[in-house]
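Entry 14: structure prediction run for MMPL family transporter. Input pasted below.
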Amino acid sequence: MEHQRQGQGPFQRIAGTIVFGNRMLVLIVFALLTAVMLFFASQLRVDAGFKKQIPLEHEYMQTFLDYEQEFGGANRVLIAVVKREGDMFDQSFFQVFENVSRDVINISEVDDARTRSLFTPNVRFVEVVEDGFAGGNVIPDTFAPNLPGVELTEDDFDTVRSNIVKANILGRLVARDWSGAMIWADLIPEDSVPGGLDYQKVAGELEAIRQQYEDDEHTIHIIGFAKVVGDIADGARSVVVFFAVTVLLTFLLLWGYTRSARHAAIGIFAAVIAVIWTLGTLRMLGFGIDPMNILTPFLVFAIGVSHGVQMINAWINERLFGGEIIDASHAGEGRDKLSAAKGAFAKLLLPGSVALASDIVGFLTILLIPIQIIRELAITASIGVALIILTNLVLLPVLLSFIDFAHPARSREKALLRIGHFDRFWHFLTRISQPGPALIAIVIALALGGFGAIYGQKMTVGDSEAGVPELRPEARFNQDAEAITERFALGVDSITIVAEARPDACTLSYPAMELIDRLGWHLRNVEGVQQVLHLPMAAKIVNAGWNDGSIRWRVLPRNPDNLRVATQGFETDSGLLNADCSAIPVTAFLADHKAETITRVVDAVKEFRDANEAWYPGVNLREQLAEQAAEEGQFFESDAVNLRLATGNAGVMAATNERVSAARWPMMGYVYGAVVLLCLLAFRSGGATLAIIVPLVVVSLLANALMAFMSIGLKVNTLPVAALGVGIGVDYAIYIYSRMKEFLDRGMSLTESYFRALKLTGTAVIFTGLTLAVGVGTWIFSALQFQADMGVLLSFFFLMNMVGAIILLPALLRWLVRPKRIGAHAHDAPPH
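Run finished. Output tokens:
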């Protein structure tokens, strides 16, 4: 029959001949490759890394890399031991705290030299006495709570309490209400360990410490990147359960749709094969799977099911009705299972390839963001979607050519009885293709798009809430973060500005030290900054100490000799300076890591350094001055200061937020540009391409509004969803329009073509949208907040893009495509 040849170009016929002429060879090759990929997939390991999360090429991260060995700070873990009731001054608390401090230091990945605790020798006090200065460790040698036979007295506790006040660590290493104390533990640089740090191991050891020492009297709170990774990895294990639930739920829904368990199983099988191949390919390429990217296999499965439903639906129509059916009285003759598979293959090869190519391009555009974890996601998803071209457009139709209905004649009779069940609904939808209703639909869509554009501006780039948004608010990590924030004047949220100057600037350059001191004062007056630490502040305290402790002398000495006296007692392990005092960090501890807080602090630093000419872009000033000093001694007289942003975890977030913000619109531009190009090449119609694209734009704008309403920030975990929404969303429109085009090319009216397309593929599109939305909707029960958020966003994309393809596409075609291109000369009344 001639209509069966519609849409079958030379390429489809040649490809069909190759594929179906060698069916057994195709199955054997797929079976062997699946066995190999399953082997490699079984070796896949979780691979988390701190530097994978950050844009290493960003200005701020260049500062972080330059000073990682000297100052660290961005990859820090904080462990607080707190008494449940009362203050910490009893022997049992100090016994627990000393043991926890020792065990944390014994973790091989912890940098001993930069670990700070009441029991470490780098936590000291200095006081003014009659003969000058006196000092020592905050915990004296005689204070040994775990030594057998030692009973601590009130005098011992009074001594420690006094030393804590003298050391000015109340609110930092000791809780403001004296209820507990904290351990700062910086991890060693990732590059110093072959294969990188094992963050799950570190998190496991920290959790073991908690389990060992937390009891009815003491609580232990742990925060930091390593613990986040561990908690996310623990939560990600539930992803396996959700994956199984999604597969089962999809199978049941697909079974109900096809009325055939074997065909539902084949559709699921092909999608699962794509997932196995994706994971195996990752292992072959040397990648692991990051906990943040643990949802990528879900996406591959969802896309595979989406295209699998279309292939199965096309095969059923070919097998039972010869490819087309309008009503029971005009049902075509069914074809044998092999011919049906060939027909479905030929009809879906082009639209399926275009849709999947759009998905691939959408993911590849994410490579624009120079953050390793996002690039890994882009590579993983792109590989997965590329493999779906093989599993769903080649393997699936070949499998369908071998499997038939148990009773084809009975299945045809049942299908004929059901064939008109949705006709009333289809007839209702065809009204949207009439000029009046079409115009109303377009106006409503534009209004919704305008609302999304306006309200979506409230969406934050970065974290919009306190705590770690990847975890539930009630998660132990977020509860620990809240507890630490309540009791201490600082937490893990800090940003460090490195002031570069000439060697020995802290002793020879009063102007440099004075500028750094003014920066500290400037930051202390920024909303969201809790405390600021820097060398000039400490030097002023020492200077006052040399002058009877008078507050009047709490200033920076202008005389180099006095300045040397005020600063010479500070060692590099204090974190206040480097070895030759050519780099002096200014650390601001923040109340939270919300995007608005970080932006406010970063803007304040930029404003200050611009006003004080303390910014030399792309220059490591201390190295430059040191080189000049080696050649000509007079360059030591330079008072130049280069204020470099930024290290600390908030500095990392600032860099990430800026990269995400900068890449957001170019990425979306590339995504839409690629989709437009592919649609133009496939359909050769600007109006049709615009009709396919506009619904995607409207849904994207509404998705931004949804993220703003739900306080979901645009960040590393959520940005890829924008590209995914466009890639998957275009699938629905492409499948519907490709079927409409077949009928339009025969001279049928737009309304008639739309009705026929709905009869043939509308049910499959609606079923796919609903099934995928329900499948990812189960994620809202996940222990991981970001998985629950992704479930909401993806469900929104699946449903709204489906609605856009069903309703807005024909409305736009009515007004965007020239009359002769939509068969206006044909009868254009709703079909009956």
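Notes: Confidence is low (pLDDT under 50) at residues 1-7, 823-827. Will compare against the previous run tomorrow.
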